[in-house]
UniProtKB/TrEMBL annotation:
It comes from Capsicum annuum. This is S-acyltransferase. The chain crosses the membrane at residues 38-58, 70-89, 243-269. It is a multi-pass membrane protein. Its EC number is 2.3.1.225. The keyword Signal does not apply.
Length: 351
C-alpha cells in the first residue's frame, strides 16, 4: 500500500514538473482566461481543418476537378489560408486602449513643451560655438504638470461645457474617458469606440480592430458559403458512398448552415453599424448611455454620411487614436431635419 502511494506521489511530482516546464515555454497558459482563449483558438482552427479536410478526403469529383482546373482549388485554399491569417491578425491586434491613447497624447505634449523650452533658453556665442543653458529641474517640473493635464483638457473639450470631470472618469481605471469609450470588464481596460468583447477572438472589438474584424467576418462568410456548396455538390454526385459518410456529411452541412446564417446576419449588422457610424454597445444600450439618452432614435449623432463613414472606417486609419467630439446642438438639429428631394439629389445622406 505504501509503495502504491509512493508511486502515485512520484507520478504526481512528474506531472507537476511537466506542467511547470510547459508553463515556462508557454506563459500564456498560466492565466485561466488566456488559457481558455488559447483553447478556443485551437478549436476554431481544428474545425476549419475538419470541414475542409473531409471534402478533399472523400470527394473524388473535387480531386478530379483539381487535376483539370487547378486554379479552382487554388483559389479556395487561398481563401481558407487568408481567413485563418485574418483571424489571428484580428485576435492579436489592439482595439485601441484609452491608457495607450492617454500616454501618446501626454508624450506628444511633453515633447512639444521640451522643444519650446529649449528654443526659449538664452544662448551665448563664443568663437563661433553656440552654448545653450537648460535648467533640467525646471523642465521636469513643467512636464510633470502639463503632461497630466494634456489628456484631461483634450477629452473635456469634446464634451459640452459644464460637464463634470467625475461623470466621465472611469471608476475602474481612474482615467478620463473620451466619448464612445467604455471599460471592458473582460480585458479590465477602457476601450476607444468600444463595440463588444468577442469570446472567439479573445479580445475587445474597438476603434483599432473593428475594420480587420469586419474583413474577417466577410472572409469567413465567403469560406463557409463555398464549403457548403462543395458539400452539396458531393451529396448530389452519382458516386456510390457508404451510409455513414452520408450521415457525417449531412451533420456537418447542417451545422455549417446555422453558422452561415449567423455569419450573414453578423456581416449585415456590422455593415449597418459602419454606414451609420455606430457601435454595438451604442445601439443596444442607447437609453443607458448618458450622451445618447436625449437624442432621438432615428438620429445617428456621429454619422458624417454613409460614404464619409465608409471612407473613414476603411481608409482613414492613418491616425492610430481617433476620437470624435460630441455633436453640437446645431449639428443635431441639422441631422433631425427630414430629407427632401433636393437633399437626395445633392447626396446629403452620403456626405
Amino acid at each position: 500500500m505504501g509503495a502504491l502511494c509512493g508511486g502515485t506521489g512520484h507520478s504526481r511530482d512528474t506531472l507537476d514538473r511537466l506542467s511547470d516546464r510547459c508553463l515556462h515555454f508557454f506563459p500564456c497558459l498560466s492565466d485561466p482566461a488566456r488559457r481558455s482563449t488559447f483553447c478556443l483558438r485551437i478549436a476554431l482552427v481544428m474545425l476549419h481543418l475538419i470541414y475542409v479536410g473531409v471534402v478533399f478526403v472523400f470527394d473524388k469529383d473535387l480531386i478530379h476537378k483539381t487535376k483539370q482546373e487547378p486554379w479552382y482549388t487554388a483559389v479556395y485554399l487561398i481563401l481558407f489560408a487568408a481567413t485563418l491569417v485574418q483571424y489571428f491578425i484580428t485576435s492579436g491586434s489592439s482595439p485601441g486602449y484609452v491608457l495607450d491613447a492617454m500616454r501618446a497624447v501626454n508624450e506628444a505634449d511633453a515633447s512639444r513643451n521640451r522643444a519650446s523650452m529649449t528654443s526659449k533658453q538664452p544662448a551665448s556665442s563664443k568663437n563661433g560655438d553656440v552654448v545653450i543653458t537648460i535648467d533640467k529641474n525646471q523642465i521636469g517640473r513643467n512636464l510633470l504638470g502639463s503632461g497630466t493635464m494634456a489628456w484631461t483638457k483634450l477629452v473635456m473639450d469634446m464634451y459640452p461645457s459644464g460637464t463634470s470631470l467625475r461623470s466621465v472618469t472611469c471608476s475602474y481605471c481612474d482615467v478620463v474617458q473620451p466619448p464612445r469609450a467604455k471599460h471592458c470588464h473582460d480585458c479590465d481596460k477602457c476601450v476607444l469606440q468600444f463595440d463588444h468583447h468577442c469570446v472567439w477572438l479573445g479580445t475587445c472589438i474597438g476603434q483599432g480592430n473593428h475594420c480587420p474584424f469586419w474583413w474577417y467576418i466577410c472572409e469567413e462568410t465567403a469560406l463557409s458559403l463555398w464549403t457548403g456548396t462543395l458539400y452539396i455538390q458531393f451529396l448530389k454526385s452519382d458516386i456510390s458512398k457508404p451510409w455513414w459518410l452520408y450521415v457525417i456529411m449531412i451533420l456537418l452541412l447542417v451545422t455549417l448552415f446555422f453558422c452561415l446564417i449567423f455569419l450573414l446576419l453578423l456581416l449585415l449588422f456590422h455593415s449597418y453599424l459602419i454606414l451609420t457610424n455606430q457601435t454595438t454597445y451604442e445601439l443596444v444600450r442607447r437609453r443607458r448611455i448618458q450622451y445618447l439618452r436625449n437624442i432621438p432614435e432615428r438620429v445617428y449623432p456621429f454619422s458624417k454620411g454613409a460614404c464619409r463613414n465608409l471612407y473613414e472606417f476603411c481608409c482613414a486609419q492613418s491616425s492610430k487614436y481617433r476620437m470624435e467630439p460630441l455633436p453640437t446642438g446645431q449639428e443635431l438639429e441639422e441631422k433631425l431635419r427630414p430629407y427632401t428631394c433636393s437633399d437626395v439629389l445633392s447626396c446629403r445622406c452620403c456626405c
